[in-house]
Specification:
With 372 residues, this protein is an alpha+beta fold. It has two domains: 160 residues, Thermophilic metalloprotease (M29) (Thermophilic metalloprotease-like); 205 residues, no CATH class. It contains eleven helices and 20 strands. Strands 14-13-10-6-5-18-19-20 form an eight-stranded antiparallel beta sheet, with no helix packed on it. Strands 2-1-3-4-8 form a five-stranded parallel beta sheet, covered by helices on one side. The chain has a five-stranded antiparallel beta sheet with strand order 7-9-15-16-17, covered by helices on one side. Helix 1 crosses helix 2. The longest helix has 19 residues.
Length: 372
């Protein structure tokens, strides 16, 4: 029988001891929104058992909306200057995100989000938080359950199965893919709506197996900034700050997005106009989590979807830096099962992935049925 208390305790223990590897005497910032206090209690207990110091900060989305609607650049700078020293002073950060209303921020102007990204998110999170030990988790709220079309309890049971996967075993099975990606030059993605090429030569491949995101399950690299050519259509919805985009088509020339199409062109144009880096790619990744099988319209889950890949427009990560910096990092997902039209991926002209499955012998242990 599903026992939420025990599942919360198990997950909290994993976040503290496996994901963040918390040590005695360290300071751990727990920041959360729209999440039950009971789970934060479990986290505080586990941080204390590790003989570390918990620091807690809360801001629900309805409060964030009110602040953003009343904010200007000066107030954002002031807020950044208060939060930055706190973030700088801790050794690890656990971010718990929930939502009572997934569209709470949908009426905040895109220009405000752009300023917020440049003034606050980039310096505080990309520059400071990402230099720490950190992990990000979405908590299973009722709003989240509605997206999945499950009862709250059934969704919570699904959620804890996804989040407490055997990530140590997955990490070992990822190693051959990491090695192959790091020895590959040209990548070619082909589907009925896509013909895209780029190079990943000389860039590292990063295994994501529960250290920074929960749920987790991806191996990513990044295209060389100016190497991307062709076109691609993403067949999984992308939700950015409460706005849903469908069937995003991007056309590239020498790395840059030169044209696009989607359901809300005006809003997407604002994203592309954020800065120079927002028209280039910062990530290429395979989604591998066997429990993530369909879109929940939450990127932390959707980008890990088995049988899928994703590309991110905007900033690359420091551990796989391709020269592209931006105030945004927006993941866009393409699923490759036959239901979605299928697809093929070639590494240096060799077919390694077809219809969402690895066919290269040394990679077959990463197919969904081998990871459950």
């Amino acid at each position: 029988m599903f026992n939420r208390y025990e599942e919360e305790r198990k997950l909290a223990k994993m976040l503290v001891n496996y994901s963040c590897r918390v040590k005695s005497g360290e300071k751990v910032l727990i920041t959360y929104s729209d999440c039950p206090d009971s789970f934060i209690e479990r986290l505080i207990e586990e941080v204390s058992l590790a003989k570390a110091i918990p620091v807690v900060y809360r801001m629900d989305k309805i409060i964030k909306r009110a602040l953003l609607l009343s904010a200007n650049e000066k107030s954002m700078e002031y807020y950044r200057d208060i939060v930055s020293p706190i973030m700088q002073s801790v050794d690890a950060v656990i971010l718990i995100g929930g939502s009572r209303n997934d569209f709470e921020l949908s009426d905040v102007p895109a220009k405000t989000f752009s300023t917020y990204s440049k003034v606050y998110v980039d310096p505080v999170h990309f520059q400071i938080r990402c230099s720490k030990k950190w992990v990000l988790l979405r908590y299973p709220t009722q709003s989240f359950a509605q997206h999945s079309q499950m009862s709250s309890e059934k969704f919570a049971e699904f959620f804890f199965n996804v989040c407490t996967l055997d990530y140590q075993s997955m990490d070992k099975k990822m190693e051959p893919l990491k090695e192959l990606m790091e020895s590959t030059d040209q990548v070619h993605i082909v589907t009925p709506t896509t013909d895209l090429t780029f190079s990943i030569k000389g860039l590292p491949a990063i295994k994501c197996s529960g250290q920074c995101n929960i749920p987790d399950g991806e191996v990513y690299s990044a295209p060389l900034k100016n190497s991307v050519n062709g076109h691609i259509v993403f067949n999984i919805p992308a939700v950015d700050n409460g706005v849903e985009f469908n069937n995003i088509k991007l056309i590239f020339k020498d790395g840059k997005i030169i044209d696009f199409d989607c359901n809300d062109k005006e809003k997407f144009q604002e994203i592309l106009d954020t800065d120079e880096g927002s028209r280039y790619l910062g990530e290429f990744s395979f989604g591998l989590n066997p429990y993530c099988t369909s879109s929940l319209k939450d990127i932390l889950f959707d980008e890990k979807m088995s049988h899928s890949i994703h590309l991110a427009i905007g900033s690359s990560y420091d551990d796989c830096y391709n020269g592209n910096k931006s105030a945004i990092h927006l993941d866009l997902i393409q699923k490759h099962t036959e239901e979605y039209g299928g697809g093929k991926i070639y590494f240096d002209n060799k077919l390694i992935y077809e219809n969402g499955r690895f066919i290269e012998p040394k990679l077959v242990d990463l197919n969904a049925e081998k990871l459950i």
